[in-house]
Every structure is written in structure tokens, then in C-alpha cells.
What does this fold into?
Amino acid sequence: MSDWEKPNQDGEDANQASHVKPTLFSRLTKGLSKTRSQLATGVGNLLLGEREIDEAVLEDLETALLLTDVGVDTTTVVMAELAKGVRRQVLNNTRALHAALAQLLEERLQPLSKTLEISAQKPHVIFFVGVNGVGKTTTIGKLAKQLQQEGKSVMLAAGDTFRAAAVEQLQVWGERNGVPVVAQKQGSDSASVAFDAMQSAQAKAVDVLLVDTAGRLQDKVQLMDELKKVHRVIKRLDESAPHDVVLVIDGGVGQNALSQVRLFNEALPLSGLAITKLDGSAKAGVLFAIASLPQVDVPVYFVGIGEGIDDLRPFVPADFVSALLEKGEE
Ligand SMILES: Nc1nc2c(ncn2[C@@H]2O[C@H](COP(=O)(O)OP(=O)(O)O)[C@@H](O)[C@H]2O)c(=O)[nH]1
Ligand SMILES: [Mg+2]
It folds into this structure.
């Protein structure tokens, strides 16, 4: 049984609203454990009651931040702000410092928080791009369910015609959701699949068309050329499409994500990101790095916190920072 065929063990739990929050938190705290454990020493000290702040406390905190993948930039800016607060005696105990740290980290991430808006255009076309194995197909499957729950009709296009079993994998998600999947056999032209799907979605006045794409071809240039071709072909049927291009990134890859953002953004202007596998061993710092990327303004539409159909959430900076700083279940 391939990974993607595994039954969803957590789906039941996530379906019950009262369980959503603890599940999200425990998964995030567990998933962010790499960055969290590095932060724990410095930030843990801040939680030891209302100690006064001295140089040593600030130094510990700075060291802790530098040891994480939060990055030098974020650490420098955050420490400068905290030091200012300490000098002005606005921050005069460790508890206040901890709260200020959380707020500053949250502010750094706030620009990334944006909801994916579905336009009135039928279909609203969303491309999912990204390297192999990051979770494109899974994210499409999860999103199809959410969109349907919002009362929207959905169609899927199996544009990853390169990889063996990619088409079948999308078809499985289509069946799970009871939504049509437009596909051709493996090896066929990706742009032709997209064209067919677009025509069909237009004819049926489907609300949202989710287009899966390949993450790997013989080489990078070829992959980017294929994405551009799919783009051109879709535009022939609707000049305004695609309405979104979502880059899917594996939360475990760390700074490597930045080059993926740049690379794909050059081929097709990205409108947003989905960061998956935040339940795994995510490197939280990449989000801070993305937030500080010059000339690239891409929000995080979704975070993936598991393999199940319900494991897709909006990106909420406050939750993310809490999970990073607060002691969760191990
Ligand atoms: N733990 C976890 N696994 C995920 C998540 N999203 C996707 N995966 C898994 O990552 C693997 C690759 O996903 P897939 O959708 O096939 O990636 P694609 O090649 O980009 O289409 C599969 O085993 C998925 O179940 C997530 O948020 N958390
Ligand atoms: Mg795939």
C-alpha cells in the first residue's frame, strides 16, 4: 500500500469541532519541535516567574533565537525591539518580555496571513505547483473537501502526467470527495489535460478547478517550460485564468524553500503558498524567512498538519507562535 492510500486515522477526530483546536495545537507543537527545543532553553527561562531582566536574560534569549532556524535577520530585529522596551522599562520582568517576544514574532508573520478568495469567475482556476513529494496532490484533495463544504462545486485536473501513479492518486482523492477528475493516461501532454479540464469545467459551470501539476521532469528547464505551457493553454480559454497559483512547500526543508519560491515565481507569478507537513519535523524559521523575502509578496493560504482529508488549516500566526513558544505535549 502506498503512502497516499493509507487510511486516515485522524480524520474522525478532526471532524469534531471541539477537538480541532487541541489537535491543531498538539500537532503544531510536535511538528515544530525542532525549532521549539532549540528555543526552549532561552525562552524557558523567561517563564520562570517574574524575574527581573538583566543582560544575561537578554543574552540567553538572543542565543536561543540564533540557535533556531528563525534566522539572523529576525533575531536581530526582534532583539533590538526587546532591548528598546527594556531600556524604556516598559518591559521590566521576564513575563512581560515573553509576551513581547510572542507579539513581535507574530507581527513578523502577520503579512503572510491571507485567506484564499474564490472569485465569481466560473471556474476559478487554481494551479498547484511545487517539487515532487511536497504534498500538491494531497493538498488538492483536502481543499476539494473544504470548498465543497462551503457549497462550491469542484473539478480536478490530473496535470501530473509524468510520474507513475500520479493520475490514480488524484483519482482516489476525486472519489473520496465525489468530484470529477479530468485525466489522460500517464505520459500524455499536461497542457492538453488542463485544456480538456478547463473546457469541461466551463461547460458545467463548475465553481473551482484545481489543477495538479508535475513536480519533476527530466530537468528544471523542462519543468518550468511545461508549467508555462499549461498556463498559456488555460489562458486561451479564459484570459483571467489561472486566478491563483499556489506553490506547495514541505515545511521540513527549511531554507531550501526560499529557492523554490524564487524558482517557481520566475516561471509563473505565485499568488500564495501552502506549507505542508507542519506535523512532522518542521523548520519553523522558513516562515520568518519567507516573510522577509524582498520582492516576493506571497501569503500562506494553508498549512498542512497531517495526511488526512481534514488536515488542512488556514495559517494563523498567533497559533503558530504559541505552538513555538508554549510548552505543548511532547
Ligand atoms: N505528515 C504529513 N504528510 C503529508 C502532508 N501533506 C502531504 N503529506 C504526505 O506527503 C507525501 C507526498 O504527498 P503528495 O501529495 O503525493 O505530493 P506531491 O508529489 O507534491 O503531489 C504523501 O505521503 C502525503 O500523504 C502533511 O501535511 N503532513
Ligand atoms: Mg502529486
